[in-house]
Structure formats: C-alpha cells, structure tokens
Amino acid sequence: MYFSVAGIKGMFLANKKIDNQVKTFITYNKGRDWRLLQAPDTDLRGDPVHCLLPYCSLHLHLKVSENPYTSGIIASKDTAPSIIVASGNIGSELSDTDISMFVSSDAGNTWRQIFEEEHSVLYLDQGGVLVAMKHTSLPIRHLWLSFDEGRSWSKYSFTSIPLFVDGVLGEPGEETLIMTVFGHFSHRSEWQLVKVDYKSIFDRRCAEEDYRPWQLHSQGEACIMGAKRIYKKRKSERKCMQGKYAGAMESEPCVCTEADFDCDYGYERHSNGQCLPAFWFNPSSLSKDCSLGQSYLNSTGYRKVVSNNCTDGVREQYTAKPQKCPGKAPRGLRIVTADGKLTAEQGHNVTLMVQLEEGDVQRTLIQVDFGDGIAVSYVNLSSMEDGIKHVYQNVGIFRVTVQVDNSMGSDSAVLYLHVTCPLEHVHLSLPFVTTKNKEVNATAVLWPSQVGTLTYVWWYGNNTEPLITLEGSISFRFTSEGMNTITVQVSAGNAILQDTKTIAVYEEFRSLRLSFSPNLDDYNPDIPEWRRDIGRVIKKSLVEATGVPGQHILVAVLPGLPTTAELFVLPYQDPAGENKRSADDLEQISELLIHTLNQNSVHFELKPGVRVLVHAAHLTAAPLVDLTPTHSGSAMLMLLSVVFVGLAVFVIYKFKRKIPGINVYAQMQNEKEQEMISPVSHSESRPNVPQTELRRPGQLIDEKVESQLIGK
C-alpha cells in the first residue's frame, strides 16, 4: 500500500512487508531510493523517545477514507506541500494498537506526536489552519485548532449540545475558513448540520513580511527530482489569513548525478550501486528490430527518472547512445499461437505469432509451413506483427514449421498444433449379458468420429480408481455374478462427455433372437429411447403370456431394420442367495418361451389398431458352445453337422464353374443377405441366418450392440 504526497512531485510513502513485519518507507525520487521514517525525538508529554534506526522507526497507516465527508487516516494537501498528518505508531513494525497521531511540517523529514488517539484532521485556509476532531462513538462538542502547523493546539466549542459526529466537510474555495459538521444529537433524532466560520479569528490578511522561505529537501539534500524548490510558508508566530496559495517562490534545475537515474529495463542494481544486466536479459537483443544500415539506441543500463528535471552533469554519460545496426544472423526463433495454447478448432481461424530474439528482420525471408499442405512466405518480419491467420479443415496433430533466412544465416522452429472439433456425443458399446470370468470388450463410439487427441477414463466393477487410456476400447473380466455398471468419460480439450451402461454377469444363461411382424418396422425410428421402451413392452408381454417371473427375462431391441431383439433367460437369484436356477431350469424356461412364441401367443398393441406379433427368429449357423463342465450330446452332434456342411460348401465352391446354375443361386443368396442388413453402421448390424436352437453364452460375448440394458 502506498500514498502519494500532494504538492510534491515524486514523493511517496509506502508500507512494505519485510521478514513478516510491515514497515513504512519514504521516497523523494519516485521509488529509486527508499528509507525508513525517523521517529520523533520526544513524545506528547516531552519525554525523550528512544528509537534507533533501523531497528525502530515511525510507521504510518496509509489508508485514505472512501467517505468524502471524513479526512481518513492520512492526509496531505497540494496547497500545503510540507504538511502531512497521519496515524501510526513507533516501534519495529506497524501495529493496530497503541495508535497516535503524528504531523510533519517539513515534508516527512521530521515528525511530531500531536494526539494519543485517532483524530480526523481538516485543512483550512490553504493549510494555514488545521482542525482536528476526535474519532469516538460518544457525542462531542469540542474540536482542536492549530495555526502553527500542528506545533500547538487550542480547544474550541462548536455546539452547546454534544453531537454524535458522522462527518466533517470543508467548504470549497481558496480562501475558505468555513467547515460543516453533521451528525445527530441522539440515535433517534434527525441529522443536524453545524456550520463553523473561523473568519472572526483573523483580524487581517497576511502581508509579505508574514512569510518566510522554506526549501524542500530530503535529509539535507536540496535537489529533489532534479530541481531545487523554495516555497513560501507563513511564520508560525503570525496569526493572519493566507488567502490564495502562492506556490513555490522559485525553482532551478540541478546538475544531473547518478541519483537522478534508475536502472533501465533488463538491468538490476547491484551491491556496488551499478546497473548490470539481469540474468534473463540479453542486451544485444535490443537490436533485433534493426536492419543493416539503420541505427538504434543502445542502452547504457540507466534511464533518467520520469519527470526528473536535472540537466548536464552525467546525463550524457548515462543516456542511451545511437549505434549502427549490426548485421546478425537470425537467432532465438519461436512460433506460438496468439493465445499461447497448443490447440485450435477445426474450421476456425488460428493466429500464429513468429518471434525472433535477434537478427535483421527487415532483410529476412520467412517461410511458414502449416503442416496441412499449405505454406506461405514473407519478405520481412514486420509484415507479420499482427500474426498469421490460418484455418485447418481437418482434425489431427500438425507439424507447423517456420524457416527464417538472411544473408548472415538461418534459423528454424517447430510447433506441434492439435486441431480438434467439438465432441458432441459418446456412446458406450458392450454386450448386454456376459459370463463370469469371460473377457468383455467395451468400445466408446464417438460423434463425430474424428475429434483429435482424446483421453478415456473408464470406471467399471468395484474399482475405486479409474483406468485411463488413449484408446477407445478396453477389455476386462468380471469375477462375480450380478449387475455391473460401466462408465466411460471422454476428455476432448475443455469438454468432458460420458456414457454409462449396465451389463449382466452370470455363470450360465440362455438367449434367443426375436423377430416381429413387419408392421413394427413402419414405426421404428431407430433411436435408443424407442428401443428401450419397446424392450420393456416385449418383456411385459412375455411375462403375461408365459407366467415366467420377470427377473428371469431380459429383452434388448437391436439397432437397425428389420426390427429384431435379443431375449436372455437369466438364472435369477433372490437377495438371500438362495433358490438359484440350475442349467436344467434355464432349459425348461427356454423351451416354455419358445413354445409360447411358436404358438403366436406373444403380442402387444403398439397403438390403437396396430397389433405386433412376437415370435422366435431363426438363429445363426455358428456352432453352440456350452459353458457347463460337460457338453451335451445334442451340441456335439450339431458341431459335427456343421463341419460336414462346411466341407460340402467348400467342394461346391471349388467346382461351382462346372455346375450349371450355381452362380445364379449364389448371386440371389447374396442379394437376400444384403436386404436383411440394417442401415446402421457395420458394427451395429446383425444379419439373420437360419438356425432352430437356442444360442449359448459363448456366442454372445463378442457382440457389441448400441442399446442400453433393459429390465432390472
């Protein structure tokens, strides 16, 4: 916190924290040199004050009141440049206790204690009169006046009834001796204004002989900010009205000395008093904007303090000298984005800034390759001051290179820029049901599919810590049965999107593909919400038609057309861990479901007048795999049948050119299969291939579908 002293150019008071202690410092040359405040020699009672610098000094509160009706804790006035009034304390640091009021009548060189408690001080008659009013929550009727710059104070009564003072305001004008005190007589009364006029105290105006000269100085040094200034001050024993402020009597410039100069940019003052380059600054870099044949100002490490009026002396020695620009090879080349980021958005302008530490920028060829097949050239660096704008049409990581050449040499720089586009949607694809200890694949499907560099955060099972990957697919296993939640969060730049799915894990389950009457396709919008709703309706119809408890049934409608669904028969186990269904129980439930479906007994009403039949679809021709300890005879028989069929197909393929009509049949069969593939993406489509038995869990593990789990 600092305070600018009114009326004296370059003079400031500041509080600085040193070793956890706040101390008050003063400067007379805009902060080039600072020193502590010398404490008063005596206190208010005239007793000596033992305070030795730098261990003990005067510390001031530098807060200026935000209320225009109060004078604040510190005050000065430009028409009384030598007088400063402030509250503070004497000691090793600034304190909020034991606060007194102090005044300086020689611009901070010496100080006197004037009150042992805080007061508001008002300047009247251009500082010729100081009015002090005590800070208190109690009503008062007296104030204090000083006509000799705070050396002595007289007590005056301004009201016959004690007043709770809220503020004091001096009347505007150069010759004002009027002040207004406002407050209230009690907490319930209205505001009262008390106008005090001190003109009657003075019987005359001040004449020339009532003044004496006073020279501004700093501990005896008369040259302040490069000039000697002498002011007129009223003699302390003269009691006359000053009137208009006369200002300084005279001012003359001083000869420049080292004290009038501060360290230039990039230089630091060392213990020997010299300004030397800082560790991070290269003095030769000042010539980077120079072109061969031109000139520049070469700094000596010093600059004259702003507003300093000194002349001659060491000014020529410390002033920057013009120097011919040397021919230099490019060095310290950098290329960055205008906002400092390493990312840009597809289809939007990105501004690249080329920065050169040194080199002849006016006679330099700059070539910029954006890494996307586009390159530009510039004949000098000044033509690129506003940056280079470019729009990337594709997503990816681009290697942006810049090459700078002049007659003295060359330099190059590289920037790896990540171009992204906003991620709009994330869909987690994984099976609805899987078997225990079987590897499961989960894939995050993105829209749009190419958005740039991504980070995937996976939460699954009972893991308390996520798995973080740069790939959109992971594999894992579940070691216990039940329902498990999997969440993927995808981080793309500042955006994070996520999707959550639930997967059922059992040691044994059955599944069956369902198909529907063709009229359902007319109402299929192929969106996840519709599939979830239809799945719940199908499950309810199956429960009503078969009487099988809903805990054993899971229905998932698959994406695409024609509309199909997957029916899962699950070994539900009650919360107590009892009554778990065996493999034979699942077979019985499956046979009951198939029988009911084949009887066309399962149907639902999509809307009034639209009745949809549910029936068992033909299954795929893949061999069935039983995950129980022993394989059933029927499964082994079917496996052998499939092997023979495969051999027959191979023989026919080898000799199909010799069999009339085989090409026509193959072409027709291929067209039929294409018609049955849904219009969604290849990863979501499922062709229907004839088969008549239930599929086993092993065939379902690697299938990835888009729908969420439906049911409990």
What order do the helices and strands come in, and which of them pair?
Blueprint (H helix, E strand, L loop, with lengths): L1 E3 L7 E7 L2 E7 L7 E2 L20 E4 L13 E4 L2 E12 L8 E5 L7 E4 L3 E6 L4 E6 L7 E5 L7 E4 L6 E7 L7 E7 L7 E6 L13 E5 L11 E8 L13 E6 L7 E3 L3 E3 L5 E3 L17 E4 L3 E3 L10 H4 L2 E4 L6 E7 L5 E3 L3 E10 L6 E5 L5 E4 L9 E4 L4 E11 L2 E12 L4 E5 L3 E3 L4 E8 L7 E6 L6 E3 L3 E4 L5 E11 L2 E12 L3 E7 L11 H19 L6 E5 L6 E6 L13 H16 L3 E6 L2 E7 L16 H22 L7 H15 L36
Structure, explained:
The protein is mainly beta. The protein folds into six domains: 200 residues, no CATH class; 46 residues, no CATH class; 68 residues, Wheat Germ Agglutinin (Isolectin 2), domain 1 (2-Layer Sandwich); 90 residues, Sandwich (Immunoglobulin-like), CATH 2.60.40; 87 residues, Immunoglobulins (Immunoglobulin-like, Sandwich), CATH 2.60.40; 105 residues. Helices cover 11% and strands 38% of the residues. It is built from five helices and 46 strands. The strands form 13 sheets. Strands 5, 6, 7, 8 and 9 form a five-stranded antiparallel sheet that branches. A hairpin with a 2-residue loop joins strand 40 and strand 41. It is elongated and about 130 Å long. The two termini are 66 Å apart. This is Sortilin related VPS10 domain containing receptor 1. It comes from Gorilla gorilla gorilla. It is found in: Membrane. It holds the Pfam family PKD. Belongs to the VPS10-related sortilin family. SORCS subfamily.
